[in-house]
Amino acid sequence: MGRATKAVLAYSGGVDTSVCIPYMKKEWGVEEVITLAADLGQGDELEPIREKALTSGASESLVANLQEEFIRDYAFPAIRANALYENRYPLSTALARPLIAKKLVEVAAEYGADAVAHGCTGKGNDQVRFDVAIAGLNPDITVLAPAREWGMSREETIAYGETFGIPSPVKKSSPYSIDRNLLGRSIEAGPLEDPWNEPIEEDVFLMTEAIANTPNEAEYVEIGFEEGYPVSVNGEALAPVKLIETLNAITGRHGFGRIDMIENRLVGIKSREIYEAPALLTLILAHRDLESLTLTKDVTHYKRGIEETYSQLVYNGLWFSPLKAALDAFIEETQKRVTGTVRVKLFKGNAHIVGRKSTNTLYTDELSTYGSDDKFDHKAAEGFIYVWGLPNRVWSQQLRG
């Protein structure tokens, strides 16, 4: 790891990132630390966080409202890709990392910093996502990761910070490790580290209601798409952030959007993860269904493999990579006709697609019907079946001969 004189630190206001400031200055000789707190809709009061960075020794403390960019340039492309890591996790946390990395590199260039820094440990995915994304944007800048190298326990980290005037947590900390943004929440650690333990405490969840508290009547929501992008809810055109906020409220009220899974981390560790992502999961569900109406069979089937690769790339920190750029071009081409409306029925933790329509529909009444309006040439089927099954027929004859 190279040393630096001026660093831009991704800052959350927690113990680790606060201690990173004096640690880099005292132990590594970094002369100046600029902090960057990213507002991704996590609901935190960012002014106290900004001030805490200054009292912890930062020369400047920046707050960047990245909500619009986060949804427009990261979440919506992932929805168009139907991105679900291991077919379950909609990448709500992973999608934020390349954006933060991009902003770190931009601020470093603006302030003439020769390094960027983060507070990730050596066990998680985020260290890889930050390091690889930063390298993809500026391979010449130094990346500092103090928490990955200092070897201090939680208690030792708190004690180290106190020597520099960084207060220890004033209340009993939650046993859970939680990350939140506009797209959802990820919850891990504590009792959840035992895969057998059910998350029975409802304070684990915030965005989704317990089934017992959900409405006793179903609710229908109509989601409009234009070229694969979500654009409206119940006929009302909404800007990206407002659309996510609206759907989070509607679908979360019905208890939809919880995930409990054993996840394969990039570093090879299996991790028990709880996620809440009500709007994001609903949008992927609706978007995939609209594609079934507007894409041809071969494109639909081929795109499923692309989606799996896309999800792995994002999860593994390769947002800024040549393969990701190539997949983006494929997805862009497929989305030109994915315009229409999907109707979703929400009830007791479930979201079911119950209707879809599009001016670009490939569903043809005259071919699909079994009624008197049927225009399909049934006599053509015999010749088609003969040609289609010919290789199997030849194989069978040879096998029996």
TrEMBL record:
L-citrulline binds at Y89, N125, R129, S177, S186, E263, Y275. It is an enzyme of class 6 (ligase). The keyword ATP-binding applies. InterPro entries: Arginosuc_syn_C (IPR048268), Arginosuc_syn_N (IPR048267), Arginosuc_synth (IPR001518), Arginosuc_synth_CS (IPR018223), Arginosuc_synth_type_1_subfam (IPR023434), AS_cat/multimer_dom_body (IPR024074), Rossmann-like_a/b/a_fold (IPR014729). Keywords: Amino-acid biosynthesis, Arginine biosynthesis, ATP-binding, Cytoplasm, Ligase, Nucleotide-binding. ATP binds at A10, Y11, S12, G13, G14, V15, D16, T17, S18, A38, G119. It is found in: Cytoplasm. Pathway: Amino-acid biosynthesis; L-arginine biosynthesis; L-arginine from L-ornithine and carbamoyl phosphate: step 2/3. GO terms for molecular function: argininosuccinate synthase activity. Its main location: cytoplasm. L-aspartate binds at T121, N125, D126. Residues 6-167 form the Arginosuccinate synthase-like N-terminal domain. It catalyses: L-citrulline + L-aspartate + ATP = 2-(N(omega)-L-arginino)succinate + AMP + diphosphate + H(+). Residues 176-394 form the Arginosuccinate synthase C-terminal domain. Pfam families: Arginosuc_syn_C (PF20979), Arginosuc_synth (PF00764). CDD domains: ASS (cd01999). Its EC number is 6.3.4.5. The keyword Plastid does not apply. Homotetramer. Belongs to the argininosuccinate synthase family. Type 1 subfamily. This is Argininosuccinate synthase. It comes from Phormidium yuhuli AB48.
